[in-house]
Amino acid sequence: MTTTIKDVKAEQQPGLWSTLQAGLEKIGFNSLGLGLMILLLVLPFIPPFNQEHIVRWLIFGAFLAAQSIAFDFTVGYINVVNFGFAAILGLGAYTSAILANEAPFLIVQPGISPWIGIWIGALVAGILGLLLGMLTLRLRGLYAAIMAWFVGLALLGLVRNLTPLTRGPLGLNPPTLLETAANRPYFYIIMAMLLVIYIVSKLITNSNYGLAFRAIGQNIEAARASGINPTKYRVFNFTMSCLFAGWLGGFYAHYFGSLTPQTLMHTSKTVEVLAIAYIGGRGSLWGGIVVAFPVVFLIEYVRSNFTDLPGVHLVGYGILMILVMIYYPSGLAGFYYWLVGKIKARRSESDA
Asked: Residue 258's domain spans which residues?
């Protein structure tokens, strides 16, 4: 049987499934991840997850997962822990809420649509991240993390004390994004935001910027010796993370419709996101998504059944982190890669 040139070209051309897999890998998905994401998107239509209070838990899970991606983008790649993360998220939330205000109890009443305000809040948070990065990321190790924490505490203090603009501890009640009281539309809004943050982060980390991030995170002096400007890449990374945080803060403001400094900007909120990112696996980006949803359900169960023990969920975070650091320092993502490696090794042995 003779083989024509046309047949050879047909054999060399990748099939539709191979092309689809290659495209998914570029944006950080494999077939398993895509299947789980589709399942998550249809979950609010499946009993008992279609109940309003459970959909609300799913929204908070997606919100926490999106935060973990933005946090892991910095800690997992350039090895800088942003202890001011919650305060920067709060900056985006308060910026959007103040811009949407029409009530006379604040000194300004711009009345800007929340759909526009959340983008302005993201921009303000990103600009602060740029300035903070230029100031702190010339420092090394723990110093940059401490400076970020101090700036976060300063932001928290400003929000508490600028009562004509923020109402301080009394908080704000910004308008919601939608007129409906149903939770399902908000779930798809936050899921869209989560996917945008994840895909953008993956595209960046899969580029030459990602290679520079990893080099800096592993050994900053070796990266500098290789011709990489550590400050440039660290500042860019930090700015993007803060931009994402501010955008998510805008969603928080116009979904929950209630803002107080203590419930949004406290350092304990940063610790929650840090725990999710570390348990999911630093540098994976997707690990926090997988961990966030079951953890939120567990937290809500603990809160509803142990009302006399406020803050007990933070103890749970601590226990989980200790277990992860002892048995699987690379988190859930590391365990997944180890398991996949074992399965492939057994298959190759059986084939041989």
From this structure: 48-351
